[in-house]
Amino acid sequence: MKRSLLTVAVSASIVAPSFALADGPQVYGRMDMSLDYVAIDDGSGSENDTGSNWAVESNASRFGVKGDAELMDGLKAIYKIEWQVDGDGSDSANRLKERNRYVGLVSNFGGVTLGYFDTPLKKAQGKVDLFGDHAGDVASVVEGEQRGKNTIQFQTPKIADSIIVKLALIQQEENEVGATCSNIQEDQDGTDCEDGLFDAYSASVTFSQGGIYAALATDSNVSAKMLDGNSGRVDSTRVVAGFKLDAVKIGVLYNLSEEDSEYAVSGADLREQTGYVLSGAFTVGKTVFKGQYGASVTELDNDDDEIEISMVALGVEQKFTKQTKAYAEYVALNTENAGFVDGVDEKENTLSVGIQHNF
Fold first, then answer.
1. 335: closest CA among 279, 290, 275, 292?
2. What span, in angstroms and rounded, lies between the C-alpha atoms of 169 and 144?
3. What is the span of the domain harbouring residue 303?
4. Core-most of 1, 48, 208, 212, by most CB within 10 Å?
């Protein structure tokens, strides 16, 4: 089935790239490939604690189908389904991987969508992340970069031509027949977990006018795999600001995330992370010089252990057309006390040279 879908989509893109078919969907995509040199020191002190390699990487290359259909005056249906593709052939288990997908209705009064897609908190980052889907992605430093499964989202129209409010209700599907509740506490018998409509949600308010962007977002009880590998329900708050004037663009993102105690094993150490990202870019003709710095601290509530992450990313882009650009990037990612083990400091340095084409 997956091969059939891929064959149909690729065939359609060859026949009609980068434009909508008559009364039909638009096939679109991106190929982003780079040659990477990666050097790692895992900080363990063992004989083989360092290493390096060259590799061709596929940086979230993807293709999809999207479109809309007029239903009546002021009301239309929208849809989108997108896959990430293994462009370098190295991941045989994930030749195709689900990305954003939804169906919904939009009108002058707002919209509603159902499916699997980025949470409002993730989308609130706007264009602050200048190294998205590459080694310098903000997801390497801060929590909150989630897609919500089983999601229904409500969105207002643009208010005063500048403000948009989003609310996504994320259904956890935990209280099915034979399922085990995840929020078992000492005073619960394991059968009284809740699976209500509003148990997990993500919401945001964004402002955009001229070259100014600002956002405030929150997650509550959202399922996530955290940077230290632990999985749980996470509450997050995110504040974002961006400014663009002529050739200069700057941005800042602050994020606070903590495990929700209601859904944690009783007595377990709960994680809390505070992090931020600063970014800036300067454009000269068709050349963009960019930089990004991020840092975060993850703490356990029952002791003094903490993980400190810092990241420096530098890059240059050469735009050939609106669809195609080449780039070179360097990223240094450092993790102190990795895995909450004192003295284990990991270092990862990545040099990438690549090309991105959108169709």
1. 275
2. 16
3. 2-358
4. 208
**pLDDT, tens digit, for every residue of 28-46?**
999 999 999 999 998 776 7
Burial code of 147-181, b = ≥16 C-beta within 10 A, e = fewer?
bbeebbbebeeeeeeeebbbebbbebebeeeeeeb
CATH code of the domain covering residue 324:
2.40.160.10
Each residue's pLDDT tens digit, 278-330? 999 999 999 999 999 999 999 987 777 899 999 999 999 999 999 999 999 99
Q: Say if residue 357 is exposed, middle or buried (CB neighbours under 10 Å; 0-12, 13-18, 19+).
A: middle
Distance CA 13, CA 11 (A): 5
Do 196 and 107 touch, CB atoms closer than 8 A? no
pLDDT, one tens digit per residue, over 206-265 is 999 999 999 999 999 999 988 887 888 999 999 999 999 999 999 999 999 999 877 666
Domain count, the chain: 1
